[in-house]
Amino acid sequence: MEQQNKTAEKLLQIMFFTLVISVMNATIFNVVLSSISKEFSLTASQVSWITTGYGIMYAFGSVTYGKLADRYRLKDLLTFGLIFMVLGSLIGLAAQQYWLIVMGRMLQAAGAAVIPAVSMIIPVNYFTSENRGRAIGTMVSALALGTA
After folding, report:
1. Cβ-contact 24, 146 below 8 angstroms
2. Please, what are the domains in the chain?
3. What does pTM read for this prediction?
4. Which residues cross the membrane (predicted)?
5. CA 107, CA 109: separation in Å to the nearest integer?
6. 71, exposed or middle or buried, with CB in 10 Å at 0-12, 13-18, 19+?
7. Whether 129 contacts 102, CB under 8 Å
8. Closest C-alpha among 103, 70, 78 to residue 22
9. Which of 34, 39, 108, 145 is at 20 to 30 A from 77, Cα to Cα?
10. How confident is the model at residue 108 (pLDDT cuts 50, 70, 90)?
11. Secondary structure of 26-81 in HEC code, one letter for each residue
12. What pLDDT, in 10s, does the model give residues 77-86?
């Protein structure tokens, strides 16, 4: 039982960190939009697709992963999502064309969306009823911190 509690606490810490990064990722990119606009000679509507594409994929992905969590192991979903998030980040980092930036951001969002969906399921599955409220509170704190 003690080992299970330690594992749950470690999982909670990892999920807190990844949830902050996932939520922060939606807005942190905005600081470079003007540079991207100048670099690629983009209109405001073109630049907005970098953020809009991310938001659409993030919302769609969160709902989809929530449903997939009923069928697949959370570990598998998290691994899949984090791989896509990193892959999208690398594509965006190496992008030399506008469409690759948009594609990279959308792929990044498709992966990052697993985190908020799964982060609310983990406290229910891995914490006792006495500790569940604290675990959910920790996840909600990560959501708030990520948007700050």
Report:
1. yes
2. 2-147 (1.20.1250.20)
3. 0.86
4. 12-34, 46-65, 77-100, 106-127
5. 5
6. exposed
7. no
8. 78
9. 145
10. very high
11. HHHHHHHHHHHHHHHCCCHHHHHHHHHHHHHHHHHHHHHHHHHCCCCCHHHHHHHH
12. 999 999 999 9
Backbone dihedral region for residue 17 (phi beyond 0: left; psi -120 to 50: alpha; all else: beta): alpha
Amino acid identity, residue 31?
A: V
Residue with tokens 């993030």: 58
Cα atoms in the 13 Å half-sphere on the side-chain side of 127: 21
Rounded CA separation 140/35 (Å): 33
Residue type, 112: A
Q: What is the pLDDT of residue 1?
A: 59
**Total residue count of the chain as it appears in this document:** 148
Tokens of 122: 């983990």
